[in-house]
């Protein structure tokens, strides 16, 4: 699949900024649709008012090979509560972590990282979707050829995707769960499967898309197989990155399969599942694995 050249449409950016400013009055910029007035300091699920908090940024060499070096900017706050989140503190108490960075200052930092070799600016967290107004204010101060990567769980809305079309270059999407029960139990997300399967095709029409799926211990049959089956049937041309580096983080003191790293046997079973699928562009841990018709793994 050909990736379009990065370009921020200035008219679309201005319209997106105006949209976000308005929606924050009764916030519905993500799938939670909390309807709180963030301009007045009211807090919804993400725990954020208007201002964002940056808790780290650096030149990342560990993202997908086709994206690195990537300037990753971590913003506090999220609309999920994943039990295995690596940045749980910044998700659960976003105002207690990071600093308020003026948009102009962050735009200057983006320019510096670009001069150091960054191929894109990668907004992550936390979650960019709940920090959309701040990000748009930053991008207003960046050149139009800035490659914007939106690193998201896609717990968003059709309107948000349409609004960000022409601003976001690549949607880097986590497709985490293959059923609603696991999504609600592990992330607090209801009606997950219907929502994400409706939104993924919209994102695919709004720019380049790269889909990630994290292999979770004990979730091969309930999550990994259904996710890969759906992607192979509905979006076979979209790049898929299957990630094997699960770590329990805050679950490490618990019990059950997710309190440990992914066993080698489960990893091999998952790779065997991949061998039965027909993806045009498949990656394992960010590196190209197998192309249709190649007959081999790499």
Question: Could you list some keywords that capture this structure?
Answer:
alpha/beta; globular; 298 residues; 9-stranded mixed β-sheet; TIM Barrel
What would the average pLDDT be, to the nearest integer? 93
Secondary structural class: alpha/beta
Main β-sheet, in a few words? 9 strands, mixed
Level of helix content?
25-40%
CATH superfamily: Aldolase class I
How many DSSP E strands?
9
CATH class descriptor: Alpha Beta
Ranges with pLDDT <50 over ≥5 residues? 291-298
Q: Which architecture per CATH?
A: Alpha-Beta Barrel
How many structural domains in the coordinates?
Answer: 1
Radius of gyration: 19 Å
Give the topology string: H per helix, E per strand.
HEEHHEHEHEHHEHEHEE
Helical stretch count? 9
Give the overall shape. globular
Write the CATH fold name.
Answer: TIM Barrel
For the largest sheet, list the strands in their spatial order. Answer: 1-2-3-4-5-6-7-8-9
Distance, first to last CA: 19 Å
